[in-house]
Design a protein that fits this description.
Layout lengths: L3 E5 L3 H13 L3 E5 L2 H10 L4 E5 L7 H11 L4 E6 L4 H9 L4 E4 L4 H21 L5 H5 L22 H13 L6 E4 L6 H10 L8 E5 L5 H9 L16 H4 L4 E5 L6 H13 L1 E3 L6 E3 L3 E6 L3 H6 L5 H7 L2 E4 L10 H16 L5 E2 L3 H7 L5 H15 L4 E2 L6 H13 L17 H19 L4 H8 L3 H13 L1
Parallel strand pairs: 1-2, 1-3, 3-4, 4-5, 6-11, 6-12, 7-8, 8-11, 13-14
Antiparallel strand pairs: 9-10
Length: 475
Amino acid sequence: MKKKILIIDDDYDLCALLSRFLEKKGFQTESAHNASKGITKFSEENFDIVLCDFRLGDKDGIDVLMKIKELNPKTIVIIITGYSDIKVAVEVIKKGAFDYITKPLIPDEVINVIEKAIAAKSNSTAKDTPNNEAGKEKPVKNKRSFTLSANKDFLIGQAPETVKVYQQIEIVAQTNYSIILYGESGTGKEVIAKTIHDSSQRKGKPFIAMDCGTLSKELSGSELFGHVKGAFTGAVTDKEGHFELANGGTLFLDEVANLSREVQASLLRVIQERKIKRVGGTKEMEVDVRIIVASNENLQSAYRKGKFREDLYHRFNEFSINLPPLRNRKEDIPLFAEFFLDKTNQELGKNIEGYEPGVEEMFLKYAWPGNLREFRNVVRRAVLLTNSGKINSNVLPWEITQSLQEENLTGNNVNFQQAPSSFVETDLKDAAAKAEYDTIMNVLKEVNFNKTKAAEILKIDRKTLYNKIKIFESL
């Protein structure tokens, strides 16, 4: 039997388009163009799902939600909202809506949320049957669904910058264009590359990733093109390179600007001729590989400085995508907080319920120099240190709590001149400790708390820096 959906939206064109799309997907639909008519229609007929715009002329989404839940608590309600209403929409979810989707509506996102809602309701019903003892003992928690990328490991955010990225992905994925991904460390460049691959006609073929920043000049050629036995000291067997392994699929080269000029020349030749020759070998092999590269350095600037080949840059630059840092997409932070919490609960077998008041605000204020990678690690650490209930600020790492404390003390012009109270300059040792503390704090501030860069500037390794931070934290 077809599921019946009620669409409540004052945009007549949107209702018509959404109705046609959902009916093609096998649903039965009805539309209402204001809240009062929608509630009346709902009271007269049975609907499985309600898609309701948050901003209506006569009422808002909260009013409609509360009335629908009053008439039938089991009805699935999904809110349609604009970007500026995201925080309000999250509040509506807390009041019983299943999820929300944002305008402009993306068809795959709409159907994804609806299908998850139906599956969640089905699971909830099964667990509530008398024969299911676990369902009787523990009520089913209404968990939020997430709109995931094609590879199911990455949350698609709702910020305008994020939606723009995924609109570009949808356009370019079906082509064979080479792509440059720009973005700071931790913005998810490899995940985006994998999403492009999984959204393309090459899906099902190999996706091979290579970090060009970790290999020496000598090893880069071998890793890319392979080698034959005896090609160099240590080459005891023949080896396939990444181009061979990725044949038919996609090759992702991260931090491509780190490749030597010699390897860049070989790479250009391979891209032009679509043939490779293993290091030390004479046989040429044809390859069919789509190339996606990533860099946190502007490659156009790099070739102008002579650090990167201009002809190779133009080969790569058939399409480029800039991944925004997390600090520029704050609308996504509450979503990722829940997403990472959900993933870590599964990973650690825990059931941490959420975050104490104030923690999300700290997340929103923090600059996230390590972007999504840092955010994920912060949540994983917090879940590990929390035994039950909700995550509080006591389990957040030093970088977040200290930077926000300093911001509160000095406003926006953070100067990190406040030393721990135990740093009383009573002797030379105390004075040296305070000077070291001030130096580390100022450098961390300069690099936006990127500890790798700070360690490089301070000419110490990351482990030493971490140890010093822990010492300061304990004082």
